[in-house]
């Protein structure tokens, strides 16, 4: 079997999606940690793999694959191991509906909040001239804008308020959907759960008034059920920052 190499940051958001998919499928891969906080994703060595300078990326033999959700589907189809897509056409539609909703609408809002409270405050401690040079090396102009906002703490109040609104709505939608069935998109665990967990694992800690055992019992049941899986435990153990250690909130019995 051709060698698989995954270029990823923490088991979180986009990086965590292919990491966990590979682990659930039992695919051996070489892990190449890209330290996002050191701007490794904009260095020439990585740009040779993904010229957009975003993570994750995966190589499978001579194939180069980017876009985390598309990589998840590729991994599910290219390798043997447990099937992570349901068989039924409507269930498959639901998986894709949720993944699109999360990737395009909900994840950017989580990300803006994460960048304003975690990424920005860590990175802005460094020398301003060094940071400006690092920003200038970013290939995508829209990412230069986001990094500047994170570093200088200039996301506007309106932007943060809109992200908070979307997160609150997303929590309610997840709670309602998980009241209908055991897993997010079908009766079997799969790609929608992997995608959703990477986004939602820390919500009980970051949004305790919106997500707790009283208000969102279905969401909490699902988060704990995903976290109980051996592949998830193994994946999160690869985390190096305090951000991913927040997953420990799911060890508690009551939130
Ligand atoms: N649509 C892409 C988005 C990838 C993405 O935005 N990754 C973030 C990390 S979660 C990143 O690379 N941020 C660093 C940067 O933009 O410099 C995917 O799903 O793979």
Q: Order of strands across the biggest sheet?
A: 2-1-3-4
Radius of gyration: 18 Å
For the termini, the CA-CA separation is: 44 Å
Flag low-confidence runs: none
Q: What fraction, in percent, of the residue positions are helical?
A: 55-70%
Shape: globular
CATH top level of the domain at 89-229 is: Mainly Alpha
Mean pLDDT: 96
The amount of beta strand, in percent, is 5-15%
| Count of helical stretches | 12
* Global structural class: alpha+beta
CATH architecture grouping of the domain at 89-229: Up-down Bundle
Largest sheet report: 4 strands, mixed
* H-E order: EHEHEEHHHHHHHHHH
How many strands in all?
4
Bound compounds, each kind once, are: glutathione
Oligomer: single chain
CATH topology descriptor of the domain at 89-229:
Glutathione S-transferase Yfyf (Class Pi), Chain A, domain 2
């Amino acid at each position: 079997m051709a060698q698989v190499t995954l270029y990823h940051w923490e088991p979180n958001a986009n990086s965590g999606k292919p990491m966990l998919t590979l682990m659930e499928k039992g695919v051996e891969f070489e892990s190449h940690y890209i330290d996002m906080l050191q701007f490794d994703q904009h260095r020439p060595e990585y740009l040779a793999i993904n010229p957009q300078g975003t993570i994750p990326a995966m190589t499978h033999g001579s194939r180069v694959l980017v876009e985390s959700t598309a990589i998840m589907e590729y991994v599910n189809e290219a390798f043997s191991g447990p099937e992570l897509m349901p068989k039924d056409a409507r269930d498959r539609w639901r998986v894709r509906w949720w993944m699109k909703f999360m990737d395009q609408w909900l994840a950017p809002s989580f990300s803006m909040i994460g960048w304003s409270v975690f990424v920005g405050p860590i990175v802005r401690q460094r020398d301003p001239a060094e940071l400006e040079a690092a920003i200038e090396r970013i290939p995508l102009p829209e990412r230069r804008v986001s990094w500047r906002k994170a570093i200088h703490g200039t996301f506007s109040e309106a932007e943060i308020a809109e992200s908070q609104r979307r997160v609150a709505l997303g929590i309610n939608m997840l709670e309602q959907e998980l009241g209908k069935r055991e897993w997010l998109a079908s009766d079997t665990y799969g790609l929608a759960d992997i995608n959703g967990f990477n986004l939602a694992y820390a919500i009980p800690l970051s949004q305790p008034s919106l997500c707790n055992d009283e208000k969102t019992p279905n969401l909490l049941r699902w988060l704990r059920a995903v976290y109980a899986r051996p592949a998830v435990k193994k994946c999160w153990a690869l985390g190096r920052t305090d951000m991913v250690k927040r997953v420990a909130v799911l060890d508690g019995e009551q939130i």
